[in-house]
Amino acid sequence: MDFQLPTFIKTTEDKNECNIYLDLLEKSLFQNNSQEILHDKIPSFFSDVITKDLAQTKLTLSDYLTKIKTIIGSLEPVSLTLAIRPSVAFQNTLYNWITSHLSPKAILDLSYDPSLIAGVIITYQGKYHDLSYKNTLTQYFNSKPN
């Protein structure tokens, strides 16, 4: 069963925002006002995607929320610490590379540290790789005799 909503989640920020709206919808099930919440309290982008998912899958809202939360919960964060604040275009480039080379379930967990000078620090599934220029310079100067 294909859902459209997960395809729009590229970062942990996207995931957190999406979970806020899904939780809001889940609470609305018990208050019998899910349609009002879906169309008035949730941004139209999310509302439109959820409405299309529901129409295509023919699931009840309750079943949809259960399945979509499981799918979103299984997304794997890849932590990237960058020396720059990436533009949306650069984030998309990173996301496309990560999902095609590491895992199609990967999402970006981005942070910014200008002290890296250039490059990136990557943490994924317990593995850590410091590919920053700061690390390269530190290694260089530590290996030189005084």
List keywords for this structure.
single chain, 146 residues, alpha+beta, 2 domains, four-stranded mixed sheet, 4 strands, 55% helix, elongated
Task: Please indicate the count of domains.
Answer: 2
**Biggest sheet architecture:** 4 strands, mixed
Strand order of the largest sheet: 2-1-3-4
* CA-based shape: elongated
Assign the structural class, choosing from mainly alpha, mainly beta, alpha/beta, alpha+beta, or little secondary structure: alpha+beta
* Helix content estimate: 40-55%
The number of strands is 4
The stretches of 5 or more residues where confidence is low (pLDDT under 50) are none
Describe this structure in words.
By secondary structure, this protein is of the alpha+beta class. The protein has 2 domains: 69 residues; 68 residues, no CATH class. The protein has 6 helices and 4 strands. Strands 2-1-3-4 form a 4-stranded mixed β-sheet, covered by helices on one side. Helix 5 links the parallel strand 1 and strand 2. The longest helix is centred in the N-terminal third of the chain and has 20 residues. The mean pLDDT is 93.
Summarize the structure.
It comes from Candidatus Woesebacteria bacterium RIFOXYB1_FULL_38_16. The chain has 146 residues and is α+β, with helices and mostly antiparallel strands.
